[in-house]
Amino acid sequence: MIPSDLRFHKEHEWVRLDGKRATVGISDFAQDALGDIVFLDLPKVGVSVKVGQQIGEVESTKTTSTIYTPVSGTVSQINTELKDRPEVVNSDPYGKGWIAIIDLADPGEVDQLMTAAQYEAFLISQKKG
């Protein structure tokens, strides 16, 4: 199930909006495609980021993948638990597996992201293509 309160970027990152703050993570589809996650290179707190910018990497037993930010702003918090327990992204990608919290520069940017229904349709179109 794709949580209906999330917005999605085409690179499979999600955003959960809370006022002018956005929690960011990778989708269940992404973690499943990556396989067992063994390491995350997380962004630094205080760094300014712009939509589409690389903010980290996920290493799995299969590959290394870039994490892109779906929103612009300032990284205000990172999920430090992932340093010791990166596998949490596999077991709970939409909950305890969140990656960073970004204080938004422009909350309106979230409207440019896919809704859960649009993301589900996007995944179906990707499988067909």
Which short descriptors sum up this protein?
4 helices, 3-stranded antiparallel β-sheet, about 130 residues, alpha+beta
Mean pLDDT, to the nearest integer, reads: 96
pLDDT < 50 stretches: none
Q: How far apart, in Å, are the first and last alpha carbons?
A: 22 Å
Radius of gyration: 14 Å
The largest sheet, given as strand count, sense and whether it forms a barrel, is: 6 strands, antiparallel
Number of helices: 4
Order of helices and strands: EEEHEEEEEHHEH
Q: State the shape.
A: globular
Question: In what range is the share of β-strand residues?
Answer: 25-35%
Strand sequence of the main sheet, in spatial order?
A: 1-2-3-9-8-5
Overall strand count? 9
Helix content: 10-25%
Which structural class matches the secondary elements?
Answer: alpha+beta
Structure description:
- The chain has about 130 residues and is α+β, with helices and mostly antiparallel strands.
- About 20% of the residues lie in helices and about 35% in strands.
- The strands form two sheets. It has a six-stranded antiparallel β-sheet. Strands 4-6-7 form a three-stranded antiparallel β-sheet.
- The chain is globular.
- About 35% of the residues are buried.
- The mean pLDDT is about 95.
